[in-house]
């Protein structure tokens, strides 16, 4: 495995920083993956000891490559192939963002009415139609 060449997008997907390889490649293209302060392209070869700064959707990472991984494995195995050296202030930022991050669920009492509220509204509107002025 020492002579194996692995692209950065494939590596980030394999260690589970991104859910899909295309998301990893897009992040590279958008400059969200940096090596020595410079944005890297998705095709860049990963070398042991490299340090990458990654800005994922709701998280900032600073990782050091400790092993090369070509295929996606479970999380407990994947964490053996990198060292998370994210500074404490960024880890605190990650926790704060994660607690308020949009999960796709609608917040209570905001937005569309519930089924019960729609029934009540329909009943109110129909009762109003029955009143003759």
Task: Describe, in plain words, how this protein is organized in 3D.
This protein is an alpha+beta fold and 133 residues long. It has one domain (8-104): RNA-binding S4 domain (Structural Genomics Hypothetical 15.5 Kd Protein In mrcA-pckA Intergenic Region, Chain A, Roll), CATH 3.10.290.10. Helix content is 37%, strand content 14%. It has five helices and five strands, in the order H-H-E-E-E-E-H-E-H-H. It has helices at 8-14, 21-29, 75-78, 88-100, 115-130, and strands spanning 33-35, 38-39, 51-55, 60-65, 82-84. The chain has a five-stranded antiparallel β-sheet with strand order 2-1-3-4-5. Strand 1 and strand 2 form a beta hairpin. Helix 1 (8-14) packs across helix 2. The N and C termini lie far apart (85 Å). The mean pLDDT is 83.
Global Rg:
24 Å
What is the chain-wise order of helices and strands?
HHEEEEHEHH
Strand order of the largest sheet: 2-1-3-4-5
Which ranges are low-confidence, i.e. pLDDT below 50, for 5 or more consecutive residues? none
Overall form: elongated
> What is the CATH topology descriptor?
Structural Genomics Hypothetical 15.5 Kd Protein In mrcA-pckA Intergenic Region, Chain A
Query: Which homologous superfamily in CATH is the superfamily?
Result: RNA-binding S4 domain
Mean pLDDT across every amino acid position: 83
Number of helices: 5
Largest sheet: 5 strands, antiparallel
CATH structural class: Alpha Beta
Structural class: alpha+beta
Content of β-strand? 5-15%
How many E-type strands? 5
**CATH architecture title:** Roll
The level of helicity is 25-40%
* Whole-number tally of structural domains: 1
Report the end-to-end length measured between terminal Cα atoms: 85 Å
InterPro entries: HSP15 (IPR025708), S4_RNA-bd (IPR002942), S4_RNA-bd_sf (IPR036986)
GO molecular function, one term: ribosomal large subunit binding
Organism: Chitinophaga caeni
Domain RNA-binding S4: 7-51
């Amino acid at each position: 495995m020492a002579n194996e060449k692995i692209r950065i997008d494939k590596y980030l997907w394999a260690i589970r920083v991104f859910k899909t390889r295309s998301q990893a490649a897009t992040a590279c293209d958008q400059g969200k993956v940096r090596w020595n302060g410079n944005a890297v392209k998705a095709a860049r070869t990963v070398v042991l000891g490299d340090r990458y700064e990654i800005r994922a959707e709701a998280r900032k990472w600073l990782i050091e490559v400790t092993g090369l991984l070509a295929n996606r494995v479970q999380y407990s195995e994947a964490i053996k192939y990198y060292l998370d050296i994210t500074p404490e202030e960024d880890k605190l930022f990650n926790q704060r963002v994660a607690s308020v991050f949009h999960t796709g669920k609608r917040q209570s009492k905001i937005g569309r009415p519930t089924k019960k509220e729609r029934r009540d509204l329909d009943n109110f509107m129909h009762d109003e139609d029955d009143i003759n002025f």
